[in-house]
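User: My advisor, Dr. K., asked me to get a structural model of this assembly before our group meeting. I'm new to this, so sorry if the format is off. These are the inputs:
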Amino acid sequence: MSFLNKSIKDLQEQVHTGASTVEQTVQASYERIREVDEQLQAFLTIDEEQAKNKARELDQAADKNGKLFGVPYGIKDNIVTKDVRTTCGSQFLKNFNNPLYDATVIQKLSEAQAVSIGKLNMDEFAMGSSNENSSFSPVRNPWNTDHVPGGSSGGSAAAVAAGEVAFSLGSDTGGSIRQPAAFCGVVGMKPTYGRVSRFGLVAFASSMDQIGPITRTVEDNARVLEVIAGQDHHDASSAPVEVPAYTAALQGDVKGLKIAVPKEFLGEGVHPEVKASVQKALEVYESLGATWEEVSMPHAGYAIPAYYIISSGEASANLGRFDGVRYGERSKQAKNMIDMYFMSRSEGFGEEAKRRIMLGTYVLSGKNHEEYFVKAQKVRTLIKQDFDQLLEKYDVIIGPTTPTAAFKLGEKVNDPLTMYAADMLTIPVNLAGNPAISIPCGFSEQGLPIGLQVIGKHFDEETVYQTAYAYEQATDHHKKHPQLGGVGE
Amino acid sequence: MAEITKEEVKRIADLARIGITDEETDMFQQHLQAFSDFANQLDELDTTEVEPTSYVLDMKNVLRKDEPAQWTTQQEVLENAPDQQDGHFRVPSILE
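Assistant: The format is fine. Below is the predicted structure of the whole assembly, which you can bring to the meeting.
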């Protein structure tokens, strides 16, 4: 049984009609993992016994009405799972086998009767755009294994694209859901900041981190967000805003929808084939009765430096907790306590994590705090105003998700600033906090997927889904799958 | 334009409690310098009248009832520690 052409709804129907059991569905997930994951390296931890027990339990359950009953999913490894190893892609946590609790999103998925298959590979502490910063193994792009899957939720996107699971959870601080979703040809949603509880998400940059679903279709995505969204008393930054039934919003009608297309999103650095795909998508929207206008977002070009100052500053504080005392690795060489800190952190963190901690410490120290950090926060205000002003007049903002299709492994790894530029179109959204989705909108000459980004107003995921769904229903990019392990197209 | 010296890199590593080799010192010096130059483009924007944004949502002082509940046990917490003794985290000597 292959998942690739089956929606979450299809998988559930199979079980409800008796054509399949939850155990068989879960079994199919592990079979696919055995078939393709040696190549992809999407999974870091697999807990087959526990998942099968859970599946059998669900098959016997009296109540089978969970919104995600029997659906197999994967979890980015920076989301804490009780008694299941949680590594954040880092050697520092390679033996962190007994986390004490489930993140709120995991609890909610469990209440909805979804089945966790395992933990997914990622750039260490979610810092990266290619998954090459995983301290275990880089993940490969299912469409072409010479190419990166994107990052930092590269394992989450690759696992869904390759049909190892029906959906996955990722986290997005500067594009870490949307960019890999674009590179792997799947649907990735970064909800509004505060929409989904961050309780149990290992913090990178707390003012921007947000958990969201990665799926093969827009409808599946809406179905998962419906379950995981909502205020949580364990996360004071989660918002007291009611969660609508996102799936109910999917009518496919975008007549009269007003679209803004910032010229900065189609400017320098964006590959012509990406521009062409977005142009074509805009024509599709026109044919569906929507209108679009070219607009300007004057401060978007300042987003990358502002983002790296703010996110690294926050990260340097958040990663202070890894000290070799309460959990994680401790250096064996340390003879006194100060050495223990220095040596444990020196051995535990990989190069990119160290670079961000160094950068963050630099921008927060002494007079740099005012000169860099507060300055970046002021620029953040200007960027947020750009979004607010456009979205007063327009329903959504549309552009590409990434400036190019997936690049090759090794291509950018030695030049941090070039790597940081891979996120130039997703980062502004995190600074402003808005919801944004990436959906497939075509392929490069090399046959690699291209992503379309739809950005909405704060807490208006409904319009974002509606807009994405209308395009998806009018096109067939989402029906193409990578050729891998003999299954595809 | 700030020039970032090797001493500055070592000072930052010291603040961040990260031991770095001479090779890493050179590398981070280059990277921090390149980033600092890159970040200077923010000075093109006049922000004297702009308020900084630290949080995008307009929420302040989120409160909840302070109700005690059993969350986890001391033993469970200690199980993840690299070293423990008599119900405490154990660390190498603090004073020589």
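One thing worth pointing out at the meeting: The radius of gyration of chain A is 21 Å.

User: Perfect, thanks a lot.
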